[in-house]
Amino acid sequence: METWLPSGNKLWGRASIGVRCRAPSSWSIYVPVMIRVSGNAVVATHPIARGQAITQDDLELQTRDLTQYPNGTFSNPEQIIGRTATLNIPAGEVLRPEQLKAALVIRQGQQVTLVAQGAGFKVSSEGTAMGNAATGQVVAVKTRSGQIIKGIAKGDGVVEVYF
């Protein structure tokens, strides 16, 4: 007798395991199973309001059944600190990616430094952010001369421009 995991099955949650015998007569069946995986998940220590920036005091690690969260969870509070809640999160709830948005590193109207660099050169200039952006997002910046330039938010008021 042998077992196998049929193609397309997940390694957790509801799945089917194939069981077959080749002798003396050949047969096979599929057995429905529930595979549970326990692990650390970041949980809200108290209610978190929509729009609130997440701090260390808002979070704790608890062991949870991770199969209950198909879109994933966070296993380290450092992955979340500084992000903003996109909805109200009750105390004791596992925090999930769809409940949070990245922390803004550039805010509309903020004075920023535009940086362009290449092989052997680096040029920087000042400008005003035309919108909000998290790290890695595109943001438009108005230069002192009135020109609008788009770049990638890098944090700490820096926008990197690529040519």
Automatic annotation (TrEMBL):
Main location: periplasm
Domain (SAF): residue spans on this chain: 39-101
Gene3D superfamilies found in the cross-reference section: 2.30.30.760, Antifreeze-like/N-acetylneuraminic acid synthase C-terminal domain (3.90.1210.10)
Lineage: Eukaryota, Viridiplantae, Streptophyta, Embryophyta, Tracheophyta
PANTHER family, alphabetized: FLAGELLA BASAL BODY P-RING FORMATION PROTEIN FLGA
Protein name: Flagella basal body P-ring formation protein flgA, putative
Transmembrane segments: none
Database matches in CDD domains: SAF_CpaB_FlgA_like
Matches recorded under InterPro entries: AFP_Neu5c_C_sf, Flagellar_FlgA, FlgA_N, SAF, SAF_FlgA
Keywords for this protein: Cell projection, Cilium, Flagellum, Periplasm, Signal
Subcellular location as annotated: Periplasm
Domain of life: Eukaryota
